[in-house]
Design brief:
single chain, 2 domains, alpha/beta, four-stranded antiparallel sheet, 585 residues, Alkaline Phosphatase, subunit A, disordered N terminus
């Protein structure tokens, strides 16, 4: 009897110690960000024609945010804000000119090394960290191998993915974004120049010699040739997959990329199941050029875009099944979102609409109308967060940074402004109000709009200082420039600002006036005071997305073979793994 009692006591003690060890283990983090996904594309946000059962299940088992806001309506600045919890203008990741993102892998701009990402912050707590998928925050500074902006330099132990975004240039047969965004500029300038010279010559105002004509034609030839070479070589120079610091495929084959990245994510979870981890899965889909694996092609009612969304949903399901299989679900905070709204102007070379759906909300990507910045926000953590809860308070993708630091037991940096707020009290119902009284909506480095959620009020005031000029006028997009811009002559300034109450007009269809809103001027006065305080908190920093920083620099070009071979290689074991699986089937 004594031996039996001793055995029971020992087993009980071991179980108690194990329980204490488990309860003391730091939580894991899995963040999944889709590219250019519209809030209206998901079933859990009201879509009835596009099946997303795995994402919908995530929302049913967790908390759904219905006023979750991207800190910027473009890829590069939004991702910088997500990783650091800071408005992009604070890190120099907001452009002062026309182009607000990186287009070339051989650019020198990127997320500054002095910025603290949530991955870098939790490293000291024993976390294994990885980013799988799209980075889009720079690569090199001074030479082609310094990797100063690489994920490994920002706290991520492991990287498998693309440094750049996925463009239609990376997808054979889908045309070139360079033509749509920039191509018309040199051709337009050349055409205007030729017509002007001809008219002036005919009018007798100038005499055009053969030498001038010849010189001009040579210049035209050089411009057209350089542009043509840039378009032709773009996939090889910018569309490549890296594993850590090494290029393993250049250019990449997009058709099976989501499957390969899903396999990499699962392998990371399996390798790190016994220690705390942070996984950032950054999908290339559903950015154009669109792609979907053969398993999903033709399955949706919405063409290739719908097929791509369904493949993303499948991938989310694979990640969640892996967490369940490894008994990690109850100790893992899962967050699913998009980097900004859908790219409404994307039309394929065959005339098919390739942009997503922003639901009831106005406009899309690159604008600060709600359709451009109101994004899916789903957080799931069984036993810690309530299931099926819906929160309509203003929240931001910058809130993930302080939430991670709090849960990992890391103090917030005291030497910089952190614009995000810890979400846990709001998610768990400890508080009913968001800490975001004001939100500042930037279009590149220009303050475009401000959102104000007054204390003790349900109102959500939003003031626009300028708005993009839609083309055609009756649309909610900028088809003439392929994306809405932040500069003259593509915007209209408003004085007084346009004012909306989103609590009554979420579609932003009817701007208020002094006649329709008695508080019109008092609301604008409060917003202007908030803008002044916000401006005082900004410090000058080097601009990372300036023309000089984003231009292609040959000496920074990553290349897995040689330029004479157009930097071509294929040495990714995931490709061989997929081939073997297909052969078995």
């Amino acid at each position: 009897m004594k031996s039996l009692a001793w055995i029971c006591w020992t087993l009980g003690l071991l179980l108690l110690c194990t329980a204490d060890a488990d309860s003391g283990r730091k939580p894991n983090f899995v963040f999944m960000m889709v590219d250019d996904l519209g809030i209206g594309d998901l079933g859990c946000y009201g879509n009835t024609t596009l099946r997303t059962p795995n994402i919908d299940r995530l929302a049913l088992e967790g908390v759904k945010l219905t006023q979750h806001i991207a800190a910027a309506p473009l890829c590069t600045p939004s991702r910088a804000a997500f990783l650091t919890g800071r408005y992009p203008i604070r890190s120099g990741m907001a452009a002062h000119g026309r182009m607000g993102v990186f287009l070339f892998s051989a650019s020198s701009g990127g997320l500054p090394q002095e910025e603290i990402t949530f991955a870098k912050a939790v490293k000291g707590q024993g976390y294994s960290t990885a980013v799988i998928g799209k980075w889009h925050l720079g690569l090199n500074c001074e030479d082609s191998a310094d990797h100063c902006h690489h994920p490994n330099s920002h706290g991520f132990d492991y990287f498998y993915g693309t440094i750049m975004t996925h463009l239609r240039d990376c997808q054979p047969g889908h045309g070139s974004v360079l033509y749509f965004v920039h191509g018309y500029i040199p051709y337009k300038a050349i055409s205007i120049g030729l017509v002007s010279l001809a008219l002036l010559h005919i009018k007798g105002m100038i005499t055009v010699t053969r030498r001038v004509v010849f010189s001009f034609l040579v210049l035209v030839g050089v411009v057209v040739s350089v542009f043509g070479v840039l378009v032709y070589t773009f996939p090889n120079l910018n569309c490549f997959v890296m594993r850590g610091p090494e290029i393993v495929e250049q250019p990449y084959t997009s058709e099976n990329l989501t499957q390969r990245m899903t396999s990499e994510a699962i392998e990371f979870l399996e390798r790190n199941s016994e220690r705390p981890f942070l996984l950032f899965f950054s999908f290339l889909q559903v950015h154009t050029g669109l792609f979907a694996s053969p398993l999903f092609r033709g399955r949706s009612q919405h063409g290739l875009y719908g097929d791509a969304v369904m493949e993303v949903d499948w991938s989310v399901g694979q990640i969640m099944q892996t967490l369940e299989r490894l008994n990690l679900k109850e100790n893992t905070l899962v967050y699913m979102t998009s980097d900004q709204g859908p790219h409404l102007e994307e039309i394929s070379i065959h005339g098919e609409m390739h942009g997503g759906y922003s639901g009831i909300y106005k406009a899309g990507k690159s604008t600060n109308w709600e359709g451009g910045i109101r994004i899916p926000g789903i957080l799931c953590w069984p036993g810690v967060l309530p299931a099926g809860k819906v929160i309509d308070e203003p929240t931001s993708n910058m809130d993930i940074f302080p939430t991670v630091l709090n849960l990992a037991g890391v103090s917030k940096p005291s030497d910089r402004v952190i614009d995000g707020h810890d979400l846990l009290p709001l998610l768990q119902g400890q508080v009913e109000r968001s800490e975001h009284e004001f939100m500042f909506h930037y279009c590149n480095a220009q303050l475009n709009a401000v959102r104000w959620h007054p204390p003790n009020s349900n109102a959500i005031w939003k003031a626009f200082f300028f708005t993009p000029d839609f083309y055609p006028e009756n649309s909610s997009a900028c088809f003439q420039t392929h994306i809405c811009l932040c500069i003259k002559p593509y915007v209209t300034f408003h004085d007084p600002p346009l004012l909306y109450d989103l609590s009554k007009d979420p579609t932003e269809s009817t701007p208020l006036s002094p006649d329709t809103e008695p508080q019109f001027y008092s609301v604008l006065e409060v917003i202007r005071a908030a803008v002044s305080r916000h401006a005082e908190s900004l410090k000058p920093v080097p601009v990372q997305v300036s023309p000089l920083q984003i231009v292609w620099k040959p000496w920074l070009q990553p290349c897995c073979s040689s330029l004479s071979q157009l930097c071509t290689c294929e040495r990714d074991h995931q490709i061989e793994k997929l081939r073997n699986e297909l052969q078995k089937e």
